Amino acid sequence: MAATYDLTPNLIPYLDRHLVFPLLEFLSMRKIYPEIDLLKAKYELLAKTNMVDFISVLYKTIHDTEEVPSEFTTKRNEVLQNLENLQTEAQKVLDLIENPEVIAALRQDKLQNLNFLKEKYGLTDEMINSLYQFGQFQYNCGNYEGASDMLYHFRVLSTDHELNISALWGKLASDILDSNWEVALEEVHKLKEIIDQRNFASPLHQLQQRTWFIHWSIFVFFNHPKGRDNIIDLFLSPSYINTIQTACPWILRYLTTAIVTNKRRKNILKDLVKIIQQESYEYKDPITEFIESLYVKFDFEGAQRKLKECEEVLNNDFFLVATLQEFVENARHLISETYCRIHLKIDISGLSQTLNLDQEAGEKWIVNLIRDTRVDAKIDFKENTVIMNQNHTSIYQQVIERTKGLSFRSQVLASTIEKREAHQNSNVAETTE
Q: Who contacts 232 (Cβ-Cβ below 8 Å, separation ≥6)?
């Protein structure tokens, strides 16, 4: 089942090759695929980079030899020579901007600083671009900290809009690979603002940019302490849920996991359920099916079976493996809460079995549930049951509850209709041709 629900093939087309490498390393540890296949995939992935020494090790392992082709040595020498040349050029700019006198003279206005440096110190656009080139080269060598530093200095000085955006993507990738999550989150916000505000040549281009951005952002959101709040806010915003539904429905796995593991955002579950239902014909996995079993079918045994499958899926997902225990705990909480709300009298043994817990653990779980959620209920330990007290919701509360999120759900429905119409139109066009 691990390979069946592995999303790596879906993710790779939207990631830089350096970002793909940690995913392949993870798959090697999990032994989901034959190791020789993964070694070959790593070799092909990195063959076009400047990581010559590591590529040589991969070659030796794959071919079971201590010898490597002569072009490896030639390429290594070329990389070292280019590195030295680029470092020399970049160092001229670094020496200038690290000069205490220059630092003291700089102001907040980038254009003013640039004119000052050009007039007084002879700084040129070519010299500034050498920082970009050196940062890009270091990135290709696997020196992500150095790359991030160079690209930061480039963005401080450069007024080239396109290169600035490219440098921001490169810096985000560098900080992700260097596990600098605080800075990476800031860059995610900057990049989102650029993508949302930029005038693209076509809606398709903006859709592609958002799709790439969504995939890169997952690295940050599942590693930064505040990431799961951010991923919910971003992915449920109209523009991005539309992108997910149109271009990458598999991202629903990550949105669902973020919501299930975030107790403070349970109010979003109704919106999530509707999205999962709408997209079930395009994408489903045990994580989305768990939500569907619990909140659409009210199939508690089915939800428990899906939860068992979720454990394996989470354990073999690079981004979600760290959420495994929290997901299972919160999922059981959701099962219990939903079960209690639709039953007046609950057999503790039966509920414990549904939660895959023994009798003692089940009793503790239910006591904690009633305490934590303030459910109006009492436990009869003699009868080994929980008696739920019914609270009738006023008609006004029902109306308010049903209208919550109506605007959001309408937008999601409209985007789904548009997508289906576009699909039908494309089919008609193909038929007429």
A: 255, 258, 259, 262, 265, 268
Which of 211, 205, 213 has its CA nearest to residue 244? Answer: 211
Q: Which of 31, 60, 59 is nearest to 44 (CA)?
A: 59
Judge contact between 239 and 196, C-beta under 8 A.
Answer: yes
Amino acid of residue 258:
A
Q: Give the tokens for residue 363.
A: 């009793």
Tokens at 387, concatenated: 């008696």
CA distances from 402 to 277, 294, 372, 387, 407 (A): 18, 19, 25, 27, 11
The answer for 179, left when phi > 0, alpha when psi is -120 to 50, beta otherwise, is left
In the numeric block, the tokens 């603002």 are attached to 193
Helices (H), 64-160: 70-97, 100-105, 110-121, 125-141, 144-157
349: exposed, middle or buried (Cβ count in 10 Å: 0-12, 13-18, 19+): middle
Q: Give this prediction's pTM.
A: 0.84
Q: Which amino acid is at 367?
A: V
Q: What is the pLDDT of residues 299-344, one digit of tens each?
A: 988 999 999 999 999 999 999 999 999 999 999 889 888 887 787 7
For residue 193, count other CB atoms closer than 10 A to its CB.
10
- In this structure, the number of other CB atoms found within 10 A of the CB of residue 340 comes to 20
217-266 pLDDT per residue, tens: 999 999 999 898 999 999 999 999 999 999 999 999 999 999 999 988 77
Residue 25 Cα distances to 9, 38, 95, 317, 318, angstroms: 14, 8, 38, 12, 9
Edge-to-edge order in the sheet of strand 377-380 = 345-347, 385-388, 377-380
